[in-house]
Amino acid sequence: MDNSSGVGVLDKAVRVLNALEAGPASLASLVQTTGLARPTAHRLAVALEYHRLVHRDAQGRFVLGPRLAELAAAAGEDRLLAVAQPVLTQLRDLTGESVQIFRRQGDVRICVAAAERASGLRDTVPVGSALPMTAGSAAQVLLAWEDPDRLHRALRNAKFEAATLASVRRRGWAQSVGEREPGVGSVSAPIRGAGGRVIAAISVSGPLERLTRSPGRLYAGPVVAAAERITEAMRRSSG
């Protein structure tokens, strides 16, 4: 099979990146693996380092850089948004309530997609809104499957407890009643990516006068089903 694109410098740069996929490599190792001349391998690795596609570890070896992870995350988010929007609309129409998707970004969760209730009293969360990771059913879902150390740190200022997150893991969904905002309730479920990792949370939210003080009893089933449809669509799109 011909692996040449016809753009020589690009093909050689990709050879360097492919070589680093196996792990850290010295310049000598890059030369041996890629078959490039030493000056060429060095020039390309340094240029890739400038663009953060390559990095150097504590031993001075070349490793894949952080920009690749950023691009992969952006591609994953684009794929998520593409497959999720029809499901969001269906869930909104089924429940009659506002629906959102949240992704964690450090100490906050970002609303990356939404389908709003057309009229009447509603819980409006505009796309791009940054909400705390210390309250709300989406925050519970995004934290519930974290590793123990990160989980412990996140619980320090949270309005929910470790027992709450254990319950979320057990039943596969979360609910909140006036936790983030008085008078507002929500139900959330995890959207999973590669390897079953939780990458986002889908939520239904609205006033407690409609959701009641047990919103999960009303909407856990539809929210979990919507999360599973998006998870499956993500799996198919990445295959």
Automatic annotation (TrEMBL):
<dbReference type="Pfam" id="PF01614">
    <property type="entry name" value="IclR_C"/>
</dbReference>
<dbReference type="InterPro" id="IPR036388">
    <property type="entry name" value="WH-like_DNA-bd_sf"/>
</dbReference>
<dbReference type="InterPro" id="IPR029016">
    <property type="entry name" value="GAF-like_dom_sf"/>
</dbReference>
<dbReference type="InterPro" id="IPR036390">
    <property type="entry name" value="WH_DNA-bd_sf"/>
</dbReference>
<feature type="domain" description="HTH iclR-type">
    <location>
        <begin position="7"/>
        <end position="66"/>
    </location>
</feature>
<keyword id="KW-0238">DNA-binding</keyword>
<keyword id="KW-0805">Transcription regulation</keyword>
<dbReference type="InterPro" id="IPR050707">
    <property type="entry name" value="HTH_MetabolicPath_Reg"/>
</dbReference>
<dbReference type="GO" id="GO:0003700">
    <property type="term" value="F:DNA-binding transcription factor activity"/>
</dbReference>
<dbReference type="InterPro" id="IPR014757">
    <property type="entry name" value="Tscrpt_reg_IclR_C"/>
</dbReference>
<dbReference type="GO" id="GO:0045892">
    <property type="term" value="P:negative regulation of DNA-templated transcription"/>
</dbReference>
<feature type="domain" description="IclR-ED">
    <location>
        <begin position="67"/>
        <end position="236"/>
    </location>
</feature>
<protein>
    <submittedName>
        <fullName>Transcriptional regulator, IclR family</fullName>
    </submittedName>
</protein>
<dbReference type="Pfam" id="PF09339">
    <property type="entry name" value="HTH_IclR"/>
</dbReference>
<keyword id="KW-0804">Transcription</keyword>
<dbReference type="InterPro" id="IPR005471">
    <property type="entry name" value="Tscrpt_reg_IclR_N"/>
</dbReference>
<dbReference type="GO" id="GO:0003677">
    <property type="term" value="F:DNA binding"/>
</dbReference>
